[in-house]
Design brief:
By secondary structure, this protein is of the alpha+beta class. The protein has two domains: 5-160, GAF domain (Beta-Lactamase, 2-Layer Sandwich); 240-394, Histidine kinase-like ATPase, C-terminal domain (Heat Shock Protein 90, 2-Layer Sandwich), CATH 3.30.565.10. Helix content is 47%, strand content 20%. The protein is built from eleven helices and 13 strands. It has helices at 5-13, 18-29, 70-76, 95-100, 134-202, 206-236, 250-263, 283-300, 331-335, 354-364, 390-394; strands spanning 33-39, 44-51, 62-63, 80-82, 104-111, 117-125, 245-247, 269-274, 279-281, 307-314, 317-324, 368-373, 378-385. The strands form three sheets. The protein has a six-stranded antiparallel sheet. α5 (134-202) runs antiparallel to α6 and α8 (283-300) packs antiparallel against α10 (354-364). The longest helix is centred in the middle third of the chain and has 69 residues, at 134-202. The relative contact order is 0.07.
């Protein structure tokens, strides 16, 4: 895989403090050439240069990596400092100072946050210099660490920008998905629902009525799944949008109960709607929430047990609740029951989005959706603030 050295050059060039670092290194060490180098197993490339001795390298210039001491530093990640090559038993015969004609040298590895080796901060001079001491080494290491942090920050910024581009593409695909889903699935479902209503008026025998009942249940279930998936997709794009208005809600809730009673004639639903004032809310969304809760109670409740629903405005809040008999929900399940794709039991119907969508509708209204489950009953309760005016709602 070919390495993109231009990106490394651009990265170092974008670090405003690098020219100052090279100037301070020159002033501190009295060495004429200082550079930030990108070093790999194959190449040595100058990314930033300060040259007052006409060494001959500019940003983008290269040295054969095997001829450099940086090549050795890349392997052991240890700084090298030489005051005077001619007086050093270790370096006096080394090929690098002989080839490039320097007597003093310092090079400190630039190690990135993930532990990888980027290159070196280095300096050379044809004359001896005082660099092999704690003061110069610690200062140079500090500068190398500062450069590494800037490189990490730029790379993270680029990664974030790339993720944002990917998120934008995903958002566009999601919008296309919603449009396709709405057109290509909802319309056929509506046609099937209309067809079953027409057949209901013409079928008289019990077997035909039973089959129609099953068809109606299936259409309702599939329609709910599609609506929940669409709402989930919209929510990923920025949350649920409400269209609140003042409404009594009783008629909407009773209509939903009547619809479920027709589709599930063998289930007993008892109602207690005592809403004595208007509620400032999105009636369509609250109807959807209620339908999700009622569907949940029918699917998971005791088939022989009753389902009780109620709503009222009291103590400055609107409350709506749905309760069913049956086995209690386990504590482990309750802890995440409002999370997406959370399904009750291995044979649960749907995608596990109904309660999640209901909770999001409650949240969008500034309210809460809670559940209490014991041996007696399982009860879901919506509670949202009851407001007297639109100005109060805006507050």
């Amino acid at each position: 895989m070919t390495h993109d050295f231009q990106d490394d050059l651009d990265t170092v060039a974008s670090i405003d403090v690098v020219p100052t670092i090279l100037q301070v290194m020159q002033a501190t060490t009295l060495m004429g050439f200082a550079a930030v180098a990108r070093v790999t197993s194959e190449r040595w490339v100058a990314c930033a240069v300060l040259d007052t001795i006409d060494f001959g390298l500019q940003p983008g210039g290269e040295l054969a990596v095997e001829t450099t001491i940086c090549h050795e530093i890349r392997q052991h990640h240890t700084a090298v400092a030489i005051d005077d090559v001619s007086q050093s038993s270790t370096w006096v015969g080394h090929h690098t100072p002989l080839q490039y004609g320097f007597q003093s040298y310092i090079s400190v590895p630039i190690i990135l946050g993930d532990g990888s080796f980027f290159g070196t901060l280095c300096a050379i001079d044809p004359n001896p210099a005082q660099v092999d001491n704690p003061r110069v080494l610690s200062t140079t290491k500090l500068f190398a660490d500062l450069i590494a942090r800037h490189i990490d920050a730029r790379r993270e910024l680029i990664a974030v920008e790339q993720r944002l581009v990917a998120e934008l593409e995903t958002s566009q695909l999601r919008d296309q998905f919603i449009a396709i889903l709405g057109h290509d699935i909802k319309n056929p479902i509506a046609s099937m629902a209309a067809g079953t209503r027409l057949l209901r008026n013409s079928v008289a025998d019990s077997q035909g009525s039973a089959v129609l009942g099953l068809m109606e249940q299936t259409i309702t279930r599939v329609s709910n799944i599609v609506e929940n998936v669409m709402d989930f997709a919209r929510g990923l794009g920025g949350g649920m949008v409400l269209k609140p208005e003042f409404t009594r809600l009783t008629r909407e809730l009773e209509a939903i109960v009547a619809e479920f009673s027709q589709v599930y004639p063998d289930r007993r639903i008892e109602t207690n709607f005592a809403i004595d004032s208007d509620v400032y809310a999105d009636s369509n969304r609250l109807g959807q929430l209620f339908a999700n809760l009622l569907s949940n109670a029918i699917v998971h409740g005791d088939k022989a047990g009753r389902i009780r629903v109620g709503a009222e405005v009291s103590a400055g809040a609107f409350e709506l609740w749905v309760a069913n008999c049956g086995a209690p929900i386990s504590a482990d399940m309750i802890s995440g029951i409002f999370q997406p794709f959370k399904r009750r039991g291995l044979r649960a119907e749907g995608l596990g989005l109904g309660l999640y969508i209901a909770a999001q509708i409650a949240k969008a209204h500034g309210g809460t959706l809670s559940v209490v489950s014991n041996e007696g009953e399982t009860r879901f309760t919506l509670r949202i603030p009851a407001v007297a005016s639109k100005s109060q709602a805006a507050e």
